[in-house]
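Entry for the shared binder. Reason: the reviewer on the internal report wants the predicted structure included alongside the sequence.
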Amino acid sequence: MQKLRGNSNSKQPLTQIKLYGDTVPALIDSGAAVNIISEKTYNKLSTQPRLLHTDLKILAYGSKDALPILGKFTGCVEAKNKTKTDGTFYVIKGDGCSLLRYQTADELGLIKIIRTIRPPSVNLTVADELVNSHPELFDGIGKLKDFQVTLHINPDIQPTCQPHRRVPFHVREKVEAELQTRSRGHHRESDRPNTLGLAHRNATKAQRSRQAAEVFQNTLQGIAGVKNLSDDIIVYGATQADHDKSLTAVFQQLKERGLTLNRKKCEFNKTQLEFFGFIFSAGGVSADPKKVDAIYHAKKPKDAAEVRSLLGIANYCSRFIPNFATVTEPLRKLTRKNTTWQ
């Protein structure tokens, strides 16, 4: 319950009520157990109701001392909105502020308790809706449906036994578990060319016809606004509508083919992004600043091998450098035989 002597802070929930035809300022206190008016306010009423004796003890908030009660009365209370209700008021000695308890204020329509807080509505993008409606595309490792990889092996070639790859002791159990999983049919091809299932034990070297990346490369062909290199996919459009249409088609195709995505690596609705070492944006294609910085801070080459390495790095930016071949000709001369270094 509020203290009777309040300040005039305009942020307090003050209202005007009518008691017996007289306007009385009152503070709405949802924590108050009773309605209170001061002795001074009671004496100003044009019609003063008879006070009844009460044994009730009223304590101000944070106080251990009971307020001096002169008596109580019950009368009709009217709010500004013309709503009326009957309320019991306790008259307190002094000239403090009048209080309206929660029940009376609620009956007068002066207060409303919000019991549930809802987060503000958010306009979801098409990408958000697709992610929310296709949780299966981000669950586990996908398996391409209706596709059988055929390994064309020349029976005239004698298989060779490869020495096992040393695996750190602390991860051997995990490697063993992974091999057991793959042996039950959940196998993914290695990224190494001409090697199938190379593990830390002896393995057989065999010629394979197609890599997993090559198979996946053809999965999204035919969808407008979509490019994929290996297992990286980029979706683009001249407008947001074009982009969303292509993205929807990609999600549908992946779902039908049984493939999945890594949610942590997905980025949606970007105005620019890095893709295979280049920056793509509405302005076109540009060099990745990180790669340019690496070239700028490359150490001075000391021999032909280091010059070739520098040229290999610089060749990345060749499409952005006019007359690249002419500019780098002096460096390429240094890689030729019988070239004298100074």
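Summary line for the report: The chain is about 25% helix and 20% strand.
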